Amino acid sequence: MHEPPVCLAEFEELAAKVLPGDIRDFIDGGSGREQTLRANRAAFDRVFLVPRVLRDVSACSTRTTLLGRPAAMPVAVAPVAYHRLAHPDGEPATARAARDAGVPFTVSTLSSVPVEDVTALGGHVWFQLYCLRDHAATLGLIRRAEDAGCRALMLTLDVPWMARRPRDMRNRFRLPPHVRPVHLTADSETEAHRGASGGSALAAHTAMELSAAVDWSYLETLRAASGLPLVVKGILDPDDARRAADVGVDGIVVSNHGGRQLDGAIAGLDALPGVAESVGDRCEIMLDGGVRSGADVLKALALGASGVLVGRPVIWGLAADGERGVRTVLDLLGAEIKDALGLTGCGDVAAARALKTTWPGTSGSALSPVSGRGATAGGPPT
C-alpha cells in the first residue's frame, strides 16, 4: 500500500481490490435481502453522543478490562471463520497483531489453523464454540481449548444451521484446497471442498456438524464442563439475557451474527440497552456487528456494553496487507477511541459508559444513563 489508510472504510475498499469475488461475498455478505446487515450499520448512524466539557482529558486512557483481564482498549477480535480465505498467513497473522495491540483474539471453531498454533504465539486468546451434533466432540474441543491455554470460551447460540446466504448460493461457494476446517471431522472437510449444486458447500458442511437440538439445559451442561469464563454470543432478547445470567455465564455478546443469520433480526445496537438493563451487573455485556469507528465504540459503551467485538474490518486489513494490515486497523481504531474519549470529555473508558445519547427525530432528546450501564428509556425505534 502506498498511502496508508486513515479510516477503517478505506480498508474495505483495499480488500475489495485484492479478494476474489466469491471470497469477498462470503466475508461481506449477509443472509436474505441483507436487511439486518444494513440495519447494524444504520443503528450506529442514527445514534449521537452528547459530549461533556470542562473536564481534564489531558491524559485520556483507552485501557480497560474484558472478562477480568487487562485490555489496551474495549475491543476484542471477533470469531471469524477461515482467515486463510483472506490471506495465506491466516489466523496467526491476525493473532500476532491482536497480541501486540493488547486486545483479545477469538479463535473460531471454523478456524483454518489449529487453536494450539494460535495460543503458542502468546497474547490473550478466547475460543469460540458451536453446538455440535456430537456432544463428545464439543467437550473435546473445550478440553483442547483449555489445554492450549485459551482464557475464555465463547458459545455461539444463533446458528442451529447456517442461514440462506444468496451471495454464497449464487457463487456455489466452497473452500479452496489450501483452506481446511481443522477442528472438524474429515467428512465435514470433504463436504466443505465439494462444489454444491445450486448452493453453498459451507452451508452443507456446517449442517453436518451443528446441532439444532439444544436448549437451556445444554448451556447449563457446558457451564459445568469448564472452569473457564463462559461467554454466550447471539443474544438479542432481554429475557434470554436474563436467563443466561441465571445460568451463570460470565458474559453476553449482543449479536445478530453480523447480519448473517435471521434477515430481519433487530440490530445489535438497538437491542443492547434492553439486554444491559435486564442483567445489570450480573455479567459482562459486549456487542458486535457494524462497529466501524472509535465513536461507534463509545456509542456501544454509553448504551451498556463493556466492549465490542470487531470482525469484518480486521479481515479487510488482513486481506489488504496481512499482519501489517491488521495492525493498522487496530492502531487506527485505538487512536479513534482515544480521540472520541477526549472530544466527549471522557478521561477513560469508565467515563464513556456514563455518556448520554440521543436519537434525533424521536420523542425526547438526551437520554440519561441507567445505573452507569447506558441509556435505555425512550430508545431508538426498532
Question: Which key terms come to mind for this protein?
Answer:
TIM Barrel, disordered C terminus, two-stranded antiparallel ribbon, 15 helices, eight-stranded parallel beta sheet, 382 residues, alpha/beta
Total number of beta strands: 12
C-alpha Rg (nearest Å): 20 Å
Low-pLDDT residue intervals, each spanning 5 or more residues:
368-382
What class would the helix/strand composition place it in? Answer: alpha/beta
- Summed up, the domain count is 1
List the total number of helices. Answer: 15
Order of strands across the biggest sheet? Answer: 4-11-10-9-8-7-6-5
Name the overall outline: globular
Element-by-element helix/strand order: HHHEEEEHEHEHEHHHHEHEHEHEHHE
Helix content: 40-55%
Organism: Nonomuraea coxensis DSM 45129
Region (Disordered): 362-382
Domain FMN hydroxy acid dehydrogenase: 1-362
EC number: 1.1.2.3
Description:
The protein has 382 residues and is of the alpha/beta class. It has one domain: Aldolase class I (TIM Barrel, Alpha-Beta Barrel), CATH 3.20.20.70. Helix content is 42%, strand content 12%. The protein has helices spanning 8-18, 21-28, 35-46, 90-101, 115-119, 135-148, 166-171, 186-193, 201-209, 216-225, 238-247, 268-279, 294-302, 312-343, 349-352; strands at residues 48-50, 64-66, 69-71, 75-77, 105-107, 125-129, 152-156, 230-235, 251-254, 284-288, 307-310, 356-358. Strand 2 and strand 3 (69-71) form a beta hairpin. The protein is globular, with a radius of gyration of 20 Å. Its cofactor is FMN. GO terms for molecular function: L-lactate dehydrogenase (cytochrome) activity. Residues 362-382 are annotated as: Disordered. Keywords: Flavoprotein, FMN, Oxidoreductase.
